[in-house]
Amino acid sequence: MIPQSFIQDLLTRVDIVDVVGRYVQLKKGGANFMGLCPFHNEKSPSFTVSPTKQFYHCFGCGAHGTAIGFLIEYSGLGFVDAVKDLAQNVGMMVPESEDKLPPAQRAEYQAKSMALSDAMSQACDFYRHQLRSAERAKNYLIGRGLTGEIAARYGMGYAPDGWDSLRGVFPDYGVDALVEAGLVIDKSDEAGANRKRYDRFRDRIMFPIRNTKGQVIGFGGRILDNGEPKYLNSPETPLFQKGSELYGLFEARQAIREAGYVLVTEGYMDVVALAQLGFPQVVATLGTACTPIHVQKLLRQTDHVIFSFDGDAAGRRAARRALEASLPHANDNKTIKFLFLPTEHDPDSYIRELGTAAFEQQVQDAMPLSQFLLREVVADNDLSTPEGRARAQFDAKPLMQALPPSSLRLQIVRALAQSTQTTPGEIEALFELVQPIARARQAPPRSKRTAPVGLERQIIRLLVAHPALAAELDQAALDAAALFAPDRAAMLVQLIAASREMGAQASFAALAEHLRQAGPDFDPLIAEIAAETESDIEAARLELAGAIRQTKMKVLKAELDQLAANGLGAEEARTRYRELTLQQEQLRRQAEAEIAQRQ
């Protein structure tokens, strides 16, 4: 793997104008260079190359990227070959592996990672072995209709009902790796005395969670009798992040390719039960809402994703979150659908009562993303009144803005316009869906800065355009931003981590290339920024500070409203209310001081 630090250094040394100029005749046009786009047929030049951003962008077809991306798209080179081509031209030697860390530190990191992985593998083997002699656990699985073949395929096991059963596997039960892997809980008092260790999973059916390489990175455990929690997951560890992993994906890869689609369910038992009944192309989220990372992983396996949810209120909420996570990845060549079973059924019970053919028909008749989106925005609104139609448009706006430009988005715009007695053009203007291109052709004066489309998007956009600003975010700003919608929060975490890793010299081009390698989440924002004239970092710094301050104010107001709603009879509540009010006032004063400073 080529170190990210090398990619960053390479992009600061190459000149994208020289790279693109080898293949495209460029002419100076203001601060940028212009030419005919090599990616689509055109008579008038709409292809621009920015020497300051080190980025290219076509206003005609939307193609954009760094010098590396240009070679990949134009010459058909792979990523590594494109990097080697550019490096050779500037006299740089491409390192064969990551070399940022000192050798001793890297060896320590690798040893720790291996220790965690070995611990998970040994625990998995132990749980599987225990299942063979656990009659109660085997009877439970048999009662659920599962065979030994399915249990073996998914590596299912049993955690004995003992406080330290893993001591038999790990003689050194006190090693840190067991705690860091999430297998053991370590509790002690504040002074560090009275230390007590015990197994996290006890008397549970165990479901090993594997990454795409097949390595065990976590576990899910289901209790056999009545009790809470019914399901217990591994905690977040260096190996395991719930928002990024899917249960059963490793086991289902071949079946997904053969079936041509993947079915996403709500739990471990859904996956193994459906595999038992002839549907091995099934995965599940790990007790969390579906995230954009989940969707991205699924779409790497297949172009056809079907989410299956129970028909109750909880299932509807989960479906809405899956819709929001899917929107950035929805496109003309992807099919995303939503399957809602009757409230009295889950997939297992539905098939056992009505048969495989009936369930296959349900899958075939699943609701397309476009239909579900439109149903969500009109369901609770009276479209016979202007107010109801306006509210439907208000509800639809953030969803539509999350969709990338495509024929699919155009079709949804037309359907929404018809439902709300509006024209497609009015919807696009109201939702600012065509704003980036219009703004790019004639950038507005800086004094007439366009209004942001929401604080979350505004903050992320500023940090993409000026990655060095990420280092200036204080902890309070990060805490406030953590309350973003999950997909935006995940994007922000990814963005800040990448920017801070690059350091103070981080550039837009280097960050854009890093984000491109990670996936398409940031593509619309990167294209928008590439289409604009470069903004002043001082102005961006002030704008970011204002957006962060507004975010903090929203968080404070929400807590104040909650305190007021619950009543302020207790002294503790009144004290907290005063503290929050004081913080609000401090933020207002900061805003007033900034306004006075600008005048």
Summarize the structure in short.
The protein is α+β, with helices and mostly antiparallel strands and 599 residues long.
Give keywords.
599 residues, alpha+beta, DNA Primase, Chain A, DNA primase DNAg catalytic core, N-terminal domain, Dna Topoisomerase Vi A Subunit, Chain: A, domain 2, five-stranded mixed beta sheet, 26 helices, globular
Q: What is the topology?
A:
Elements: H1 4-13, H2 16-21, E1 27-29, E2 32-35, E3 47-50, E4 55-58, E5 64-65, H3 67-75, H4 79-89, H5 103-133, H6 135-143, H7 148-153, E6 157-159, H8 176-180, E7 184-187, E8 196-199, E9 204-210, E10 216-223, E11 231-233, H9 249-259, E12 262-265, H10 268-276, E13 282-284, H11 292-301, E14 304-309, H12 313-326, E15 335-340, H13 347-354, H14 356-364, E16 367-368, H15 369-378, H16 386-402, H17 407-419, H18 424-430, H19 435-441, H20 455-465, H21 475-481, H22 486-502, H23 508-518, H24 523-530, H25 537-566, H26 571-598
Parallel strand pairs: 12-13, 12-14, 14-15
Antiparallel strand pairs: 1-2, 2-3, 3-4, 4-5, 6-9, 7-8, 9-10, 10-11, 15-16
Helix pairs in contact: 1-23, 3-4, 11-12, 13-14, 15-16, 15-17, 17-18, 20-22, 20-25, 21-25, 25-26
